[in-house]
């Protein structure tokens, strides 16, 4: 567990919440349920949530609060959980830290109403039906991928697509086409024998059906090109349904249609390439296809704006991961059968390195790294594909420099551009007004980060 000094330095997140005083029993119960269902974490009492000012708790109240929390965890959370509580001292004030471990009897519920909650970012949310179902499957060791697909039959599996998949696998031993394809499907859990009848699993339909969305509505890719920076005005939109390992080709085709080419002329050749690095797009798109929660009745969305690409997939982060884990090599597979199939096709690695690779490709192109955010039960990656047309040369230099730094300030820009500090402050302020930099802090301590 983190020390109180480290906790105070952190921002509120999936694993951390600050409260000046204990909330009502119902709110505490919902928070503890959410932490147990997600990845565990800490509630720090006696600290303001926005300012992180140390307010402390009266010593005379500490025992009462501890007893209250213990009672909530024992009697109002089903199944009960055991909190780990400790009292810390900061600025001569008492701070109570309540740690909840990630549970292994999910889904945890509130005794009052039998409701399931999870943590999404720094908020506690009521779990939707698909998330609650995923928690139950996780507890039973059951994968949604391996369940028979509702109302589907083996006629929905296109054996030509299966054969194409087998031929395209990259391992040397995979070139052989198995004579008994149904038996191979069963061996890979893409089909199951249920009371003597062979039925396709959810993974089998997603990978090998001509139209998976006819049985699994989320197995669609919706693509749109919008005018400007909002989703108000469509310039183009298309919806694709195909075996999910083929959806990337449709996404790339849509991207090529709407992202212009750049030309680089050398002494003996002229090379053309997309304004946005395909390697980064590939990683982000396959990441969405592999990690989508296909039990949610929604779809993967690719949105292209004037300067930004957004990829949104249903399901958010797999439970147990936080946004701080993205790009670090830490990986939890929501859909291991699909991930294995994509790996066999050479689409993804198995070490969780794809995001870091994509971010490096963006930096090489002089673009800011992509931003990941959780939006309810969805995960969205937002990536700048070009700087705006109104960007001046010195502004472009500042933005490129900012891609290499966590934060920049007027002193760094003054030195980098060889201009006065006053001029540098003016440049930074204008970029912040254009929405390309985020101003952090005030007066002499002000710094800027890429948006």
Structural overview:
With 451 residues, this protein is α+β, with helices and mostly antiparallel strands. The chain has 14 helices and 20 strands. Strand 19 (437-440) and strand 20 (447-450) form a beta hairpin. Helix 2 packs across helix 3, helix 8 (247-258) packs antiparallel against helix 9 (278-291) and helix 9 (278-291) runs antiparallel to helix 11 (354-364). It is flat and about 75 Å long. The two termini are 32 Å apart. The model has no long low-confidence stretch (mean pLDDT 86).
Topology of this structure?
Blueprint: H1 4-9, E1 16-19, H2 25-37, E2 41-45, H3 59-75, E3 77-78, E4 84-90, E5 93-100, E6 109-110, E7 117-120, E8 123-126, H4 129-140, H5 159-168, H6 181-187, E9 191-194, E10 197-200, H7 202-208, E11 221-226, E12 234-240, H8 247-258, E13 261-265, E14 270-274, H9 278-291, E15 300-304, E16 308-314, H10 336-344, H11 354-364, E17 371-375, E18 378-384, H12 393-402, H13 410-417, H14 421-433, E19 437-440, E20 447-450
Parallel strand pairs: 1-2, 11-15
Antiparallel strand pairs: 2-5, 3-6, 4-5, 7-8, 9-10, 11-12, 13-14, 15-16, 16-18, 17-18, 19-20
Helix pairs in contact: 2-3, 8-9, 9-11, 13-14
């Amino acid at each position: 567990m983190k020390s109180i000094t480290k906790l105070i330095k952190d921002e509120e997140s999936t694993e951390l919440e600050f409260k000046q005083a204990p909330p009502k029993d119902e709110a505490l119960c919902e928070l503890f349920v959410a932490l147990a269902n997600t990845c565990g974490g800490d509630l720090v009492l006696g600290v303001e949530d926005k300012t992180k000012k140390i307010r402390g708790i009266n010593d005379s109240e500490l025992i009462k609060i501890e007893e209250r929390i213990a009672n909530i965890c024992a009697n109002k959370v089903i199944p009960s959980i055991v909190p780990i509580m400790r009292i810390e001292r900061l600025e001569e004030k008492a701070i109570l830290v309540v740690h909840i471990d990630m549970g292994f009897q999910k889904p945890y519920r509130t005794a009052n109403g039998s409701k399931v909650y999870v943590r999404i970012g720094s908020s506690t949310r009521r779990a939707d039906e698909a998330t609650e179902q995923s928690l139950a499957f996780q507890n039973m060791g059951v994968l949604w991928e391996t369940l028979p697909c509702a109302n589907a039959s083996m006629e929905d599996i296109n054996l030509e697509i299966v054969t194409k998949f087998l031929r395209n696998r990259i391992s040397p031993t995979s070139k052989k086409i198995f004579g008994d394809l149904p038996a191979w499907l069963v061996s890979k859990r893409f089909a199951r024998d249920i009371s003597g009848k062979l039925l396709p699993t959810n993974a089998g339909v997603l990978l090998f059906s001509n139209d998976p969305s006819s049985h699994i509505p989320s197995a669609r890719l919706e693509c749109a090109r919008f005018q400007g920076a909002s989703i108000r005005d469509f310039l183009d939109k298309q919806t694709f349904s195909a075996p999910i390992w083929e959806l990337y080709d449709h996404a790339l085709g849509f991207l090529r249609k709407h992202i212009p080419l750049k030309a680089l002329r050398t002494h003996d050749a002229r090379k053309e390439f997309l304004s946005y690095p395909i390697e980064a797009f590939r990683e982000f798109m396959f990441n969405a296809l592999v990690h989508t929660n296909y039990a949610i009745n929604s779809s993967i969305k690719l949105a292209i704006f004037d300067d930004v690409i957004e990829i949104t997939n249903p399901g958010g982060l797999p439970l147990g991961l936080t946004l701080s884990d993205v790009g670090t090599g830490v990986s939890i597979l929501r859909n291991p059968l699909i991930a294995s199939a994509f790996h066999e096709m050479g689409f993804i690695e198995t070490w969780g390195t794809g995001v870091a690779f994509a971010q490096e490709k963006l930096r090489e192109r002089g673009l800011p790294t992509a931003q990941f955010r959780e939006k309810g039960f969805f995960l969205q990656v937002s990536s700048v594909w070009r700087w705006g047309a109104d960007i001046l040369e010195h502004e472009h230099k500042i933005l490129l420099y900012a891609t290499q730094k966590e934060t920049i300030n007027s002193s760094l820009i003054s030195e980098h551009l060889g201009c006065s500090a006053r001029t540098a402050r003016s440049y930074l302020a204008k970029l912040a007004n254009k929405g390309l930099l985020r101003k952090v802090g005030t007066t002499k301590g002000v710094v800027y980060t890429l948006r």
